[in-house]
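Mods, move this if it's the wrong board.
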Amino acid sequence: MTITNTITDTSTEPVRKPFQGFRKVYHVLASSMFPLAYLYPPLHFTFPETRKWILIISGTCFAGSFLLDLARLMDKKFNSWFMGLFAFLIRKTEVDKFNGSTFLCLAFFVVVLLFPRTVAITAMFFLSLGDAAAELGGKNFGRLRIFERSLEGSIAFFTVAFVVAFALFGDFQIAVLGAVAGALVELFSFDVDDNLTVPIGSALALTLVLVLFHPGVNFPTF
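Not the wrong board. Structure tokens:
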């Protein structure tokens, strides 16, 4: 389920992966449900009640996805059947490793458990919306390569992340620094799935910005 800002070399110009529209739309919708529920609690839940249910659901989803990945990685026949059945949702590159949904559920559980509500919501949106923007930016406009990513994709990530952070915090400095941090985490996520690194790294960076530059601001906690 990982969405990455990636371009690939040829002798002349980058060759971009085919756009898998359904998987991208599914990723955005599925991964946006958690921050949206935390931002606008459903069924007249309080924020603490919503937080509890997000932790329960994300933790359960992580455990289930982890065990499923473990089972398919230990059984080649089951793995082949499973990857064929869900080829429209899972990347071929995830055939021999844990899939992005497992890392996403773990990351969302961690940020909701450990970080203030506004920080957690922002970090989750950085992944669901910012990472999708990086994919679209890299695929459609990517020309300048940075490691395994593109500058255009990183700019797209920063732009969306800035809008999200500014809308939630209402502070230009927090939005800029948080968006820069998120874009850098996405850019340098090489060996670790960015479904894990982007939310947690962004939450850490946003918390650091608040502590260093806005220690007296009373933002919502849990």
